[in-house]
Write a structure and sequence with these properties.
412 residues; alpha+beta; 5-stranded antiparallel sheet
């Protein structure tokens, strides 16, 4: 039995197989009674677990085709963003955004609607222009934006099959410089959150919920810019590099202090050659409609005496509206309220229902790859296309070959 990256989950599968071809993958799926795809294991819940066989995509990790004229790149599902980003940068190209760490696989990140930040930036799955996967029948299914099922297949929760390749939109490369400000009063987010969150191409707010203050604001500006202001809405510019976790070295983080560099060396928070984040943690995240941000944060702040003792740090980010059925940002701009917990599952498990209760009035939707208590009876009320997605799942997996307790929780 293996574990996920954080080590909080021991998989119950019969074993892990790593096919190196689509033909071998199709054969394995057809012959297996229960199957789940396994990427880079960065999910914190049991979404990739199964009582059957896990199929690792670690050997399906190549760039297949670059088309600069059409502004697309075709990649195998198991490739990491770190590997893909370095390849694109060498060719003078870029993705529109990256998550906080580049170690995750493209297929896994898109399947769970993983995101970066930026009020005008969609999550990572919004870069997908076509997708190919093997379903429960062993069929090789290819969908693009002209197909009616496409927008249901990209954020797929691993419910449709094993993704073999994706076509992603790319753009010309760009430079990014990163500034970090400290001690932003939480009240500064009250009047115009979009203005503060939109002060750079990508903005992240980090807080430990120990006071009415945002501890750090990370701004990722496109271009070289001028002299950085010493203050920002009451926060002060840091003269030294910082890690989001106060007791960790900033050497693990991407370059700060306003020093320009390629997009792939700035948009992520953590460097590819270091252990991402703390390594000893649990994670939860909830998305709320953007207009409710400040009031949602106020409700979380009321729980800070319960939260802060078991928390490493919270990160608050934004994602733009999209058309992907199971994306928490479907048809709405959202703010993402993230919790990096200490590795104390009993305490976290006890607190999560209270956080859910605080955020449910704002129609919060969880990050599909992290820990959340919400179940189908609630989720079907806040995910408008849930019924359509369930029909799509039934089409490609009528007998539940890819089904597991996680999908039972989400889909009913």
């Amino acid at each position: 039995m293996g574990t996920n990256w954080a080590g909080n989950l021991e998989y119950g599968s019969l074993g892990v197989l790593a096919p190196d071809s689509i033909d071998r993958l199709r054969d394995l799926i057809v012959k297996s009674e229960k199957v789940k795809a396994l990427g880079t294991r960065h999910s914190f819940n049991n979404g990739a677990d199964t009582g059957g066989v896990q199929i690792s995509t670690e050997r399906l990790n190549q760039v297949l085709h670059l088309d600069p004229e059409r502004h697309t790149v075709t990649v195998q599902g198991g490739i990491s963003y770190g590997k893909l980003s370095a390849y694109l940068a060498e060719h003078g190209l870029a993705l529109h955004n990256l998550a906080s760490l580049p170690h995750i696989s493209v297929a896994g990140a898109c399947a769970t609607a993983t995101h970066g930040s930026g009020v005008k930036n969609g999550n990572l799955a919004t870069a997908v222009r076509a997708i190919e996967f093997v379903n429960a029948h062993g069929d090789l299914v290819q969908l693009d934006e002209e197909d009616e099922d496409f927008h249901g297949a990209v954020v797929n929760l691993g419910a449709l099959g094993v993704v073999t390749s994706m076509v992603l939109r790319v753009q010309p490369t760009f430079e990014v410089r990163q500034l970090v400000y400290q001690n932003l009063p939480l009240s500064e987010l009250a009047s115009d959150f979009d203005a503060v969150a939109g002060s750079a191409y990508s903005v992240s707010f980090f807080t430990t919920w120990r006071s009415d203050t945002i501890d750090q604001v990370w701004q990722k500006h496109v271009g070289f810019g001028g002299v950085a202001p010493e203050t920002f809405h009451g926060a002060t510019l840091s003269p030294v590099k910082l890690h989001p976790l106060p007791d960790h070295s900033a050497e693990h983080c991407t370059e700060q202090l306003g020093i320009p560099g390629s997009w792939h060396e700035r948009l992520a928070h953590f460097r590819m050659d270091f252990t991402p984040s703390s390594g000893e943690e649990l994670q939860s995240e909830f998305m709320v409609p953007r207009q409710h941000t400040y009031h949602a944060l106020q409700e979380i702040n009321k729980l800070r005496d319960r939260i802060s003792p078991i928390l490493h740090v919270s990160e608050i980010r934004t994602a733009a509206s999209d058309r992907l059925w199971m994306s928490p940002a479907y048809a709405q701009d959202v703010t993402c309220i993230h919790f990096t917990w200490k590795k104390n599952w009993p305490a976290v498990q006890a607190l999560l229902p209270e956080i859910e209760a605080a955020l449910v009035p704002f129609r919060a939707i969880p990050h599909w790859g992290k820990l959340f208590p919400m179940r189908h009876d609630y989720l079907k009320t806040v995910v408008p296309k849930m019924g359509d997605f369930k029909a799509l799942v039934a089409k490609h997996d009528p007998n539940g070959k890819f089904r597991n307790p996680y999908l039972d929780q989400v889909l009913g």
